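note to self: dont lose this again. the chain is below, predicted strucutre after it. 171 aa total, dont forget to put it in the shared folder this time
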Amino acid sequence: LAVAPGLFFALVWILPWLVPVVLPYITDDFARIVAADARLEFGRGFNVIMGILVVAVAAVGGIKKINQSARIVVFGLLTLNGYLAPKAAGIIQAPVKTAALIARDRGLQVIMWKMYYPSFSVYHGLPALKGTPRPGDVIITKVNRLAKIKSHEPIYQAHGIVLTRVVEMAP
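---
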């Protein structure tokens, strides 16, 4: 019965290697950048931790006194909360935090354009404005939204998140 959790962890373990296979089929620029960056983020440490988990699940699976559901819950919580969630937060949330801190340090008022990350306002210390940007406005958006901007001056960009000053909007 330890096979099911072991297979789950083995599947999670191989996900970074599947990214190059599916990357050509991802049409959204933002999703493609996040997937590619995630693969880089899950390096050697990820392999070591997932390898240990697969072996641990298999080893604990042989102990009849431990309920299988309890094993799944414990290993699942350790993996998700202890490793995967912080890694995912680093990929998704870290650029939003960095952009907000840059904007705060430079005293910039920012329009959050075509995205929703409430944490930006928390880190920035001011609520982000909403609406359509005009030339001169500083915006935070996803990289796939930049096609609607004819010209801009990037301030910060990472993991598909862009903090930029609009020079000219596309018609």
